[in-house]
């Protein structure tokens, strides 16, 4: 037998021994885990989560608690900890699945607020991962609303309200992004439709002043001065300190126009409601 063949056989033997040793080690670890108490395995999961939050080790330990001690309090806690661990790993779908499983298995339990919050922020945090996805944003809003409405006294309610406002702002921002695109392309009617959505449906967001200013720009481009003046009047009344009002004011005065409510369009109705307080 040649030296090359001998070396190949030796390498093969070493690999076999390594695999068998690995299997034996894995079996040994499994035996050791199965001899531990639920609390001890849970503690291993907490340690793994602290030392290696990006690895799946913690989730595996918590799953072992659930498997070996399914009717214990530690098993119940392990389900929500799996959700938390998966969220830390940015495995958002897995986090939501574990959180929802907890809510299904233990409705009204002491960690229900936390599970619902993990479910909600797993939608919310994924928005930033993949961009302003409107579907995810709507789901985040729905899940956050549950935290706010069903667990108003929990430690998660305040954070949920803040994230709800930010997610709401995401939706308005998406409308603005599309509206600005149409405006740059000269598609003024399409732009107006987007800015109108912001003014009518997202009026509490940070995008409203710009939306009103872009309406001034769009209506002036179309020669619809009554609508432009009315949009500027609403902007001036509600956001007079905004630089967008300054821009709108210059646009109007440059054409000899004033910021005042005129005509009977949809903006006039908003003016009557938001400025004059007339709802009928």
Task: Report what the structure shows.
- Helix 11 runs antiparallel to helix 12 (243-253).
- 77% of the residues lie in helices and 0% in strands.
- The chain has helices at residues 3-34, 38-51, 57-68, 73-88, 92-105, 112-130, 134-150, 157-185, 188-201, 208-222, 225-238, 243-253, 266-274.
- The protein is elongated and about 85 Å long.
- The longest helix has 32 residues, at 3-34.
- The chain has two domains: 25-170, Tetratricopeptide repeat domain (Serine Threonine Protein Phosphatase 5, Tetratricopeptide repeat, Alpha Horseshoe), CATH 1.25.40.10; 171-274, Serine Threonine Protein Phosphatase 5, Tetratricopeptide repeat (Alpha Horseshoe), CATH 1.25.40.
- It is an all-alpha fold and 280 residues long.
- It is built from 13 helices and no strands.
- Residues 10-24 have low confidence and may be disordered.
List keywords for this structure.
280 residues, mainly alpha, signal, Serine Threonine Protein Phosphatase 5, Tetratricopeptide repeat, 2 domains, membrane
Would you kindly provide a brief summary of this structure?
The chain is mainly α and 280 residues long.
* Helix content bin: over 70%
| String of helices and strands | HHHHHHHHHHHHH
Give the overall shape, derived from the CA principal axes. elongated
CATH-defined fold name of the largest domain: Serine Threonine Protein Phosphatase 5, Tetratricopeptide repeat
CATH class of the largest domain: Mainly Alpha
The largest pleated sheet is described as:
none
Strand percentage? under 5%
**Mean pLDDT over the full residue set:** 88
- The computed structural class is mainly alpha
* Rg calculated over all Cα atoms: 30 Å
In CATH, the homologous superfamily of the largest domain goes by the name Tetratricopeptide repeat domain
**Uncertain regions spanning at least 5 consecutive residues:** 10-24
CATH architecture of the largest domain: Alpha Horseshoe
N→C terminal distance: 101 Å
Number of strands: 0
Number of domains: 2
Instruction: Give me the number of helical elements.
Output: 13
């Amino acid at each position: 037998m040649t030296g090359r063949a001998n070396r190949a056989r030796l390498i093969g033997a070493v690999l076999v021994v390594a695999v068998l040793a690995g299997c034996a080690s894995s079996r040994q670890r499994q035996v050791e885990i199965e001899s531990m108490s639920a609390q001890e395995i849970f503690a291993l999961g907490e340690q793994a989560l602290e030392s290696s939050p990006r690895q799946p080790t913690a989730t595996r330990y918590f799953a072992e608690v659930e498997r070996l001690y399914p009717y214990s309090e530690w098993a119940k806690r392990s389900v929500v900890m799996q959700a938390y661990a998966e969220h830390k790993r940015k495995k958002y779908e897995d986090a939501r699945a574990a959180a929802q499983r907890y809510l299904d298995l233990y409705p009204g339990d002491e960690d229900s607020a936390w599970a619902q919050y993990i479910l909600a922020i797993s939608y919310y945090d994924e928005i930033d991962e993949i961009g302003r996805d409107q579907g995810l944003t709507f789901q985040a809003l729905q899940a956050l609303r549950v935290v706010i409405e069903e667990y108003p006294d929990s430690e998660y309610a305040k954070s949920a309200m803040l994230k709800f406002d930010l997610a709401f702002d995401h939706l308005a921002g998406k409308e603005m992004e599309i509206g600005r695109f149409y405006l740059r392309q000269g598609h003024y009617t399409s732009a107006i439709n987007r800015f109108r959505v912001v003014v009518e449906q997202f009026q509490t967001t940070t995008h409203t002043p710009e939306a009103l200013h872009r309406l001034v720009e769009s209506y002036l481009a179309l020669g619809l001065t009554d609508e432009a003046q009315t949009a500027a009047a609403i902007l001036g009344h509600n956001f007079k300190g905004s630089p967008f009002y300054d821009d709108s004011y210059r646009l109007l005065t440059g054409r000899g126009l004033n910021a005042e409510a005129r005509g009977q369009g949809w903006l006039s109705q908003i003016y009557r409601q938001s400025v004059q307080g007339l709802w009928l």
